[in-house]
Amino acid sequence: MIFKRLAGTFTAAAIASGGFVALGTAATPAHAETVCAYKVRNVPSGNYLNVRRKPKKTSKVVDQIDPRYAVLGQCKLATANWRAVQGHKTITTGYVHKRYLKKVLKITR
Question: What are the record keywords, sorted (predicted)?
Fold first, then answer.
C-alpha cells in the first residue's frame, strides 16, 4: 500500500512538472502486476472526481480525487465504461467512469 502512495505521489509530481518518468527493473517476475497512472480530466477547477463503491452512477461515493493529482488503477476496464482505481483520502479501491481519466503511465511491478 505504501508503494501505491509513493508511486501516486511520484507520478503526480512528474505530471505536474511536465517531466518524464522512467522506471526500470532488471527482471520482471512471472507474477508481476501491471497498474496504470491516470491524469484526471473533464473535472472543473475547484471540484473533485468521485470514486464510487460500484461501477455505476448511482453507487455510493467512497472517496474523492483532487484533479491536480494522478491516480493509480487497473489498466483494463473493470466494465464497459468504468475503471477500478485507488482513492486518495481513504486509499479505498473504487470505480471512476473512463471519461474522467487519461492514461499517462504504465507500471509493471
Answer: Signal
